[in-house]
Automatic annotation (TrEMBL):
Biological process annotations from GO: protein ubiquitination
Protein name per the record: Ubiquitin-activating enzyme e1
Domain of life: Eukaryota
Domain Ubiquitin-activating enzyme E1 C-terminal: 146-258
Taxonomic lineage from the root: Eukaryota, Fungi, Fungi incertae sedis, Microsporidia, Nosematidae
Transmembrane segments: none
Amino acid sequence: MPPKRAPVLLNFDLNNDLHLTFVRSMANIYRDVYQIHHKRINNDFVRDYINSELSSLNNYSINKNMTDKSPVEMEPLDPQDLHIIEFEKDCDVNNHIDFIYAFKGIAGRIIPAIATTTSVISGLAIIELIKLALKVKNIKYRKFLFKSCAAYILEFSDLIEAQKLSYIVDNKKYKYTMWNRVEYKDNILKNIIKAVDIQFKIKVSMVTCDNKLLYWDQDPAYDCNLDKMLSDLINKVEGRKYVVIDCITQDEISLPNVVVIV
């Protein structure tokens, strides 16, 4: 492994494109996080702006004894205005990869790390695609792999078969695993509970989703949720296609995952 470098203090260089890229990408990311209404900036804008600010500071330093006016201070940004943005490596305009490239280019060797990791992931993904193309179903040809590029570790282990559970409907036993699920389309909560009751011949007493209690038959305060669409009761997450709800009975009967397409 190459020797690790101790951190050193760097002087900002307006003629270094890597330094300008770091400032530009960080500024654009802040723009998106704080939802600032300003067009995205480029390296030339950064260079011109910094030169302008340095010139203003020099003029202020010269004239500070000739006036009582202080430099204009911007109002601090409110943390409540923060907007969560998801990392996206395949978008060329969001500056995410530019920031990583500039940061790692200044702090360490990122290109070999990206190349090594990408090649390993790509190779393993191709192996799995070949298995799918050949319709390999024998579990002995499937292994769990742990790979550490930093520590030069490559370990394989056998897969563990999923635990088999069961439930009984009309004196008939049905087996399932954690990978099985029952799907319903988005509907009012009352209809979803009724559908589960009919399919599994049970009485649902409680419904939760993402640690949020949606219904409990022992508390009338939750009755108002029965006539609401499930999609209106859950926490909104952009890009979310479905949610898993927990339907609990008084007898705590084990059921497959109940999934609602939202």
